[in-house]
Specification:
Length: 171
């Protein structure tokens, strides 16, 4: 599947088959994340791969009961280190660039997963402190996104998008 196809096909999937993800495919997703663009090539990310049932249950609790996190065979928690970006960009790196950079890595994971026939969902609604505790993260890392990954057990219709002429302005 080409990138345009993956962009158009990608949907938020919240129901997964009980089927493992091949290790080589999971590695490819993480490699795709690691080549995302980042300000000054600082690469302020760390990817936590969660497979354990107990840890996934803690992520469900941290997310206000988003059960797809427990149902998926793998959850990738994308973390960022604001100080990695701050070394070069000071406050702007600490408050903005590390978030933008990890968002680019998340997008790469979502699109790569789609190209492999996998489903994902970008989960951003969670209690950061609870995720930090569940993963035993060091103080320098902030969990920014959780991505359940697996073979979809649902079909999703095309999204209802805003009219194109209301989102593109020309000057």
């Amino acid at each position: 599947m080409d990138v345009i196809g993956a962009i158009n096909k990608r949907r938020s999937i919240r129901k997964f088959q009980d089927r493992p993800i091949p290790e080589d495919v999971l590695r490819k997703l993480l490699e795709c994340a690691s080549v995302a663009p980042s300000a000054g090539n600082r690469q302020p990310w760390v990817f936590c791969v969660v497979r354990g049932h107990n840890t996934k249950q803690k992520l469900v609790e941290a997310s206000g009961n988003q059960v797809s996190l427990a149902q998926a065979p793998v959850v990738i928690v994308v973390c960022g280190d604001p100080e990695v970006s701050a070394v070069r960009y000071e406050d702007r790196g600490r408050s903005l660039y590390f978030i933008q950079d990890t968002a680019a890595a998340v997008t790469n994971i979502l699109l790569a997963a789609t190209s492999f026939g996998l489903g994902t969902c970008w989960v951003g609604a969670f209690r950061e402190t609870m995720v930090r505790q569940a993963l035993e993260l060091p103080a320098n890392l902030r969990p920014l996104a959780m991505i359940p990954v697996g073979y979809p057990d649902q079909e999703r219709e095309p999204r209802n998008l805003r009219p194109f002429d209301t989102i593109v302005w020309e000057r």
